[in-house]
Amino acid sequence: MPKFNILYEDEAILAACKPAGLPMHANLDEKRENFVSLLARQLQARDGQSGYLGIHQRLDLGTSGVVIFARSPKANASLAEQFAQHSLVKRYLAITTAQGHLPHREWDYRCWLGDPLKRGGQVTWRNSCPIDPKIGNFKEAITHFRLLQRKSGLLFLEASLKTGRKHQIRAQLAKQKLPILGDLLYGGADRLVLHDICEPITHPMLHAFYLELLHPLTNQKMIFCAPLPDDFNRIMERAGVQQIDMLREGQK
Question: E strands, the chain, where?
Fold first, then answer.
């Protein structure tokens, strides 16, 4: 059983790192492992019981990064409200290929995203509000993008979510002709070729590195940062990226 990196834990909340390639929740396949169940088993082995684990956050199968859990019903209610109000600060690192042109070094991208056309498929997308927003369950999706570094034909982008729609960052970057490396569903390359070395990419290079929220019991600002996975560090090293300044505390 994998052992997950627990970034922070107290009586109210627990922040842990989800690896890429692991689904968040159980589905109809009872044999399929998932992050929530495996974390509960890790806590059970450590403490003799897993305790309360309330969650309102979802990362895609191929996305890694920090996930927050409530450890009590009281804390869960506060987290639920913060997620519903979109008051949390959520930032991702995306490695993309430069098929399109960047509007600016920083820019907001706004569109309307619907539900996937089929299970496991792409989300439907429109530039503006549909005539009937109820058709396809279209909802507004807003993301702030920032170019961190451009190197060896790759773009290292920070994506800050203003809303939380399914596949939001992946779909919006693809529509801007900046598909995420390894995101085959949205047109990303399945391999990286740098310096005559070809390396297969097995999942979208998207990492939820930063989460900021108010502690549900003390109302204190809490910041959690998930370390970059090995494959991100390896691509950065091969591309010649020395350092990326991703942290901007308190900015949304």
Answer: 6-9, 13-18, 64-70, 89-97, 106-116, 123-126, 139-151, 154-161, 191-194, 197-200, 206-214, 221-225
Helix (H, G, I), strand (E, B) or coil at 35: helix
pTM: 0.91
* Cα–Cα nearest to 154, from 179, 175, 183: 179
DSSP 60-110: -TT-EEEEEEESSHHHHHHHHHHHHHT-SEEEEEEEEE-SS--SSSEEEEE
Closest CA to 91 of 143, 22, 15: 143
| Residue whose entry in the numeric block shows the structure tokens 């801007």 | 176
| 71 in Cβ contact with 11 (< 8 Å) | yes
For residue 198, the model assigns a pLDDT of 83
| Whole-angstrom distance, CA of residue 189 vs CA of residue 175 | 15
φ/ψ of 20, rounded to 5, equals -70, 150
- Residue 232 CB partners (closer than 8 Å, separation 6+): 93, 95, 205, 207
Record the tokens describing residue 143, joined without a space: 């993301």
Residue in the block written with tokens 């350092």: 243
- 73-129: per-residue pLDDT in tens? 999 999 999 999 989 999 999 999 876 677 688 999 998 888 766 666 787 767 666
Long-range residue pairs from 194-201, CB within 8 A, at least 24 positions apart, any chain: 194/152, 194/238, 194/239, 195/238, 197/238, 199/238, 201/231
What's the one-letter identity of residue 133? P
Q: What is the C-alpha separation between 59 and 127, in angstroms, rounded?
A: 24
